[in-house]
Amino acid sequence: MKIAILSRNASLYSTRRLKEAGEQRGHTMQVIDYLRCYMNITSHHPQLMFQGKLMDDFDAVIPRIGASKTFYGTAVVRQFEMMGVFPTNESQGISRSRDKLRCLQLLARKGIGLPVTGFAHSTKDIEGLLDVVGGAPLVIKLLEGTQGIGVVLAETKQAATSVIEAFRGLDANILVQEFIKEAGGMDIRCFVVGDKVIASMKRQGAPGEFRSNIHRGGSAAKVKLTPEERSTATRAAKAMGLYVAGVDILRSNHGPVVMEVNSSPGLEGIESATEVDVAGKIIEFIEKHATYGKTRDRAQH
Fold this sequence. Notes:
Elements: E1 2-6, H1 13-24, E2 28-32, E3 37-40, E4 47-50, E5 53-54, E6 60-63, H2 70-82, E7 86-87, H3 91-98, H4 100-109, E8 117-119, H5 126-132, E9 138-142, E10 151-154, H6 157-169, E11 174-178, E12 186-193, E13 196-204, E14 219-222, H7 227-240, E15 244-252, E16 255-262, H8 268-274, H9 278-289
Parallel strand pairs: 1-2, 1-6, 6-7
Antiparallel strand pairs: 3-4, 4-5, 8-11, 9-10, 9-11, 12-13, 12-15, 13-14, 15-16
Helix pairs in contact: 1-9, 2-3
């Protein structure tokens, strides 16, 4: 098979591992900088070009779209879909997961466990918004934030009010969520491929840090999931319409709650912590499911 990896940097760990895993199984792998692609959007004959060459002979595409380039990246994935190329994640699923509010609304509709979450536009309604999530301490998140950036723990009502007013003064959209204190700065990354969790790790925040992101000094270790946690992760990925996803879960007093669903989860941390060949599992999924024109959106909205 000929498989494209949409990535801006061929030297990134995740991109390299996917390329290696595909080549080890006898496939032709090509890394494509999606920002350098251009498209001919024509009825009956859509085309995609990269470095002056027509990209018309691929069997599958693995999107590794950066959060800040979602709009153009998903347009490129959509063009591949129009050309009948099988994507490990479809454009609609990527767009859904990147919109944190939309993501939470879709998960809530499916009855998947979530932290109590509030959303508002006007700063005149701050007091009511804080009451929705049970008051301080609480977590305030920028909708556009990634890797723990734009996430603030407000320990008092005054602090929460100040942070919300500051963010709204910058015209930033924010979510307010209950603080799951019992998680102790630890979350679980479940790596879903197809309809299964193929690897999972717990991430512990650095001392004094409530965010568990490895990019922020957190540590990772293999973890055994409960059946409920496994089910929550696979249902969350399916609700987004994603075949490959990193689902981040907190262990709360009222069961597992989903914090985020990531459509381009990194491979380095989870492969190191679990010693599972995650890249290989993704290639195996492609081998089993990639057929021409098989692009179907698995979620309703």
